[in-house]
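Subject: Methyltransferase domain-containing protein structure
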Amino acid sequence: MKIHESIQEKCQFFPPEEMRPKVRALLQQKGFWDDWDKVYEVFRYYWHVQDKANLISRITRCIMDTARELQSIEVLDVGAGDGEVIRDIMELLLTETKRLSMLDIIEPSSSKRDIATRILPHREYGGCLRGAFQTMDGVTGRSYDAIVLNNVIYHLEPLEDSIPHLFNNLRKGGSLIILHINNNFDYEPIIRGIGEKQGVSLDIATHTVPLRVFLGMGEVIYDANMINMFKRFYGQAAQLCSNPLSDDEFSALLKQCSEDGFFDHEHRLITARKT
């Protein structure tokens, strides 16, 4: 059984209409992200290398599907972090399309934005990075073939305010590409409903994508920080769930859902194409 399925059986979550503002409030709590950078680096180190490559390939293919004949593909990455994932995507995009594409990034954290601008190849030197901005205001008036939201949709609440702006930045035929943890929260009907309300015609497809994460062959190797991070990923907080699992219970559940030293930190990949 998948980890999100087991959690759904064991935990009583608040209704979806209550969950979204609760998640937003939780993410904005002072100290919520403190000291997570080093833990997250270890988490990324634990990703199954083949699943990571498949994830990059799937997102890249979604971007390629928006390509206009003989023109550069223009991509916006919202919440780019330190730029590592989008760099892999842009490198594969270059290899597959055999043409230079353009990239803008939005990253609120100045420290992460600085790292991203150092590791991404700049447009003026023949690379892809055209602009790096703190907010969406920086891309006002620009149009894109693909807008990528890689595990950041939770930070864009209220979606009824942020998603219409993203639709405005999409060219006809362009796609909003959303990757998020499969944690029993379905964003597809929300995106579809916002599109209908805004009069934006969308062709939406959702797929599940595996992302195995190393857990250990014997006992669970995670320390308390890693367990706490995964519990937050899966809504194990009193603000979201009436009976959140303890650290020991969550560790046992991870072990129960693991196979050959890994458990599937499954994601959903939503592609909303503007038609």
